[in-house]
């Protein structure tokens, strides 16, 4: 499954992408904001990530800038206790440029196309930028703030939870491609 937004090409990660993934995520400040990614993150973890199978109900994508072919992060859906959850990370040099919001919007379009009606998402409270991204995408805070385990931190951290009703949400088109 592939998708195109205004500035990004979303595609599955391939085995030869392991170094690009490692180059973007092997940064403790990136990884500590994620729930499921360990720290330290090394070549073995990157190779395992790009070699895993793609779940068509919960796809994940490498985010590629078409102008230079550079991988700048990942975004996709995960299964969290039976609910579809949006997740993403952006390599530090690309923070603050709107890529997380753009990629998230692309994933929301895909989620709607493959039949998801509602998504959840969250962010650790010490990462308020991610909360801003979620709100720009149309996610609404559920009012639930609770501990969530962070593999990178090796402990729980307080996280705010959000949800979006895809039938009611208005997501701007991002020039879908196959």
From TrEMBL:
Domain N-acetyltransferase: from-to ranges = 8-167
The record ties this protein, via InterPro entries, to:
Acyl_CoA_acyltransferase (IPR016181), GNAT_dom (IPR000182), N-acetyltransferase (IPR051531)
- Identification of the protein by name: N-acetyltransferase
Origin species, per record, is: Tsuneonella deserti
Classification from the root reads: Bacteria, Pseudomonadati, Pseudomonadota, Alphaproteobacteria, Sphingomonadales
